[in-house]
Every structure is written in structure tokens, then in C-alpha cells.
Amino acid sequence: MSRAYLTTDDGPTKQTPKLMDYLTEHGITPIFFFTGTQIELNHDEAIDAIKRGAIVGNHSYSHPNFDKISLEEGIVEITKTEVILNKLYKEAGVEREYKLFRFPYGAQGGENKQKLQE
Q1: pLDDT tens, residue by residue, 71-100
Q2: d(Cα 3, Cα 40) in Å, to the nearest integer?
Q3: 115, CA 20 to 30 Å: which among 24, 34, 70, 76?
Q4: Of 63, 10, 51, 64, whose CA–CA distance to 33 is shortest?
Q5: CB 12 within 8 A of CB 37
Q6: DSSP letter string, 37-70
Q7: Does residue 17 have a cis peptide bond before it, meaning omega lies within 30 degrees of 0?
Q8: Do residues 35 and 102 make contact, with C-beta atoms less than 8 angstroms apart?
Q9: Do residues 35 and 50 lie in contact, with contact meaning Cβ atoms separated by under 8 Å?
Q10: pLDDT tens-digit profile of 8-62?
């Protein structure tokens, strides 16, 4: 039996609850990759998604191209959003089982790729 995973990036948005309605009605568990800035703008939508079973991963804080920023900037982008996600899951009352990260634009850090993977 094959298995597919539906993932979406760059949220949450004001449309996230409607997307969750559709997905849950069809028995689909989404994996969202949220940015820290969007979580701050759409906090309630992020909480709602987690409470309704979405898996939420880290998509950086401000969505930079990791091939064009320093290692230090990349670490800040990831770490800042990790703090936000940990608080979000705690507030939602849901255990955070997965710590996922997706690079914006598919840019994996250029010369810093190996260090960012560590």
C-alpha cells in the first residue's frame, strides 16, 4: 500500500481553518511548514490547526533564502521559530512529536549546508 503526505508551506493564514475543515472532512492529516512571522500574525489559526491534528514544522522565522544568508543568521531563523513552535504546541495542549524543518525556496544553505544539517 502506498502512502502520500500532503504538505503546505508559508502559513498559517486566515484561510488555514477552512483548509483544515476540508482536510479533516476527508480524513487527511496535513503537515504544515509555518514561518515564525506568520504564526505571530495568525496565532489563533495556528493553535486551531494543531488542536485539530495538523503536524506543524518549522519553515524559518522570516522565510529567507538560506543560500544567501550567513550561518549565524540561519541558526537564528531556525532557533527563533523552534521557540515559537514549542510554545504553540504547549498552548494547544498537544505533545510535539515531530521536529521538522523545511528550507524556504528549497535553498539548503549553500556553503553552510553541512553545518546547518548538524
Answers
A1: 999 999 999 999 999 999 999 999 999 999
A2: 32
A3: 34
A4: 10
A5: no
A6: HHHHHSHHHHHHHHHTT-EEEE--SS---TTSS-
A7: no
A8: no
A9: no
A10: 999 999 999 999 999 999 999 999 999 999 999 999 999 999 999 999 999 999 9
pLDDT category at 117 given cuts 50, 70, 90 is confident
CA dist 68 and 59 (Å) reads 16
Q: How many residues does the chain have?
A: 118
Q: How far apart are the first and last CA of the chain?
A: 33
Instruction: Please state the φ and ψ torsions of residue 34, each to the nearest 5 degrees.
Output: -100, 145
d(CA 19, CA 56): 14
The rounded distance, in Å, linking the Cα atoms of 32 and 50 is 10
Give the predicted TM-score (pTM) of the model: 0.94
Burial label, 40 (beta-carbon count in 10 A; 0-12, 13-18, 19+) = exposed
